[in-house]
Amino acid sequence: MLDRKLLDFLKAYKNSSITLGKLEQFCPGSTTYEDFAAAVLSLEEQGVLKKIDSSGENYKDPSLANKYAIKKDALKLHHQQIKQLQLTVHPLISLDRYYKLSEKEWEKDYKYIKKIDAYLKNKGVPQLPVSMPQRSYELVADEKWLEAGGTKVLERLGVGEQLKIEQTPDPLMLAVAPKRFTSLSHLHLVVENKTTYYALADILCETAFTSLIYGQGWKASANLAYLPKQLNLPGCEHIIYYFGDLDAEGIRIWWYINEKIKTTPAVAFYRALLTKQAKYGKQTQRPDRRALAQFSAYFSRDAGQQLSNLLAEGRYYPQEALSKDELQEIWRNSAWTTS
């Protein structure tokens, strides 16, 4: 419809007022005056255009003002929709966040908001947690919707916790030493990179460790808490060590994991890295002060200062700076606490 086309034009129009002639220029050449006038009057009724009386009128039938003020706030028509819908949705649903988002985001989420509203009204707040795919199917008839980004909609609506979605992260990729399963205390080493994982996997049974875990960067932060369950070793003591790249990102990964589950830097590996020649190439990374302070506390003052200086200069140590032989020697012969 013409009024919709004019509305889209006005949204992109930067000035706060517009002449009638400018509006006419935007219309297709085949547009009749009657259709044009009806579209302009419709925008007046919606509060988008307000005639400027001092500009005079064109005295046609119907008569239009020669100039209009553009009410920018009224162009955000989805705000009116948000306000109206808020009056009818389930009390747990809040639409406030959508006032700060674009109309495009509102239109994209609208059908899902309606479905979530219908679920809460028809079935109420769930009493028991279920897996993400199951809840996703119950909400929108698509078991992959939540995993594909639908959780963001739940967060916007403020109903994520109330819908009781059981988090089921991917299983950890790990190697195990079965002979240690009878112990009541277990050591675990998480390594950030695949190369280091395979360099150490061959000698796992020669160490005091029950498992070697491939952390896959940030991925370990989501699933490491499930380690005792995955190993079927509940009720035991689990001591976790972490070894990643010695750069701002690697330290931040360790810190984030440690916030969720107690994890100790594998200091023996890091000390060996600090004896090597650091590389340049991480100038864009910025150390997290909290993470760096907590990480450095495991080292001597001199080593902590060395680390702080090299990060400030954009230098770093990849795990691969240690050879396979060096990695294995350190893991076999370093003193690892078991309590």
From TrEMBL:
InterPro entries: JetD_C. Residues 188-296 form the Wadjet protein JetD C-terminal domain. Pfam families: JetD_C (PF09983). This is Wadjet protein JetD C-terminal domain-containing protein. It comes from Desulfotruncus arcticus DSM 17038.
